[in-house]
Write a structure and sequence with these properties.
The protein is of the alpha/beta class. The chain contains five helices and ten strands; from the N terminus they run E-H-E-E-E-H-E-H-E-H-E-E-E-H-E. The strands form four sheets. It has a three-stranded parallel sheet with strand order 1-5-6. It has a three-stranded antiparallel sheet with strand order 2-3-4. The chain starts with a strand and ends with a strand.
Length: about 180
């Protein structure tokens, strides 16, 4: 059985997030070894979460208990940074994609990462999709819009064409 869409959030520290965007970058508030925590955005609680979101060993034990053979993991949409300046979002995406690859590295047959991209900039998004897939992601996850631009916007169509040309699967999620 394959679970094709499950989120993860690496243990991003408050300082790491605030260095990028003190008001909008997400981070994980959880004590070391804790079974629960909270996604924070700036200083605001965003959502309660539990250990499977940041602990791949715990995640795989859950997969075993549920009879899931492989799980595709991707960023929670709050991590996309679509509202940020494009180069900042590109740097963040690259960091988060490396964290996604690391999250899956201990269980490469069970956990497979999808990349996030700075979709607000076509050139940067295409470059990060290619880089991330070459680094170990199996495809890309995007939102169904960036601000007022829907999937039929020429830049987003060109991004999808780029991914198709490079044979990168794209998972489009609604409501980002």
């Amino acid at each position: 059985m394959i679970d094709m869409h499950s989120h993860f959030l690496p243990p991003i520290s408050r300082d790491e997030a605030h260095a990028v965007d003190a008001e909008r970058a997400p981070w994980l508030s959880a004590e070391p070894g804790a079974d629960s925590g909270r996604i924070m955005v700036g200083e605001r609680p965003f959502r309660p979460v539990y250990r499977a979101l940041w602990d791949p060993d715990y995640r795989v034990r859950e997969l075993d208990a549920k009879g899931v053979d492989v799980q595709i993991v991707c960023a929670t949409p709050v991590m996309f940074g679509y509202g940020w300046e494009a180069t900042k979002a590109a740097d963040w995406a690259a960091q988060m994609n490396e964290k996604a690859i690391a999250f899956c590295a201990g269980h490469p047959q069970r956990l497979k990462p999808l990349a996030q991209v700075p979709l607000q900039d076509l050139k940067l998004a295409c470059a990060e999709a290619t880089r991330a897939v070459n680094a170990g992601c199996i495809g890309v996850q995007i939102g169904n819009h960036v601000g007022e631009r829907d999937l039929d916007h020429p830049d987003l169509v060109d991004f999808l064409i780029h991914c198709a040309g490079e044979k990168h699967p794209v998972l489009v999620i609604r409501g980002t």
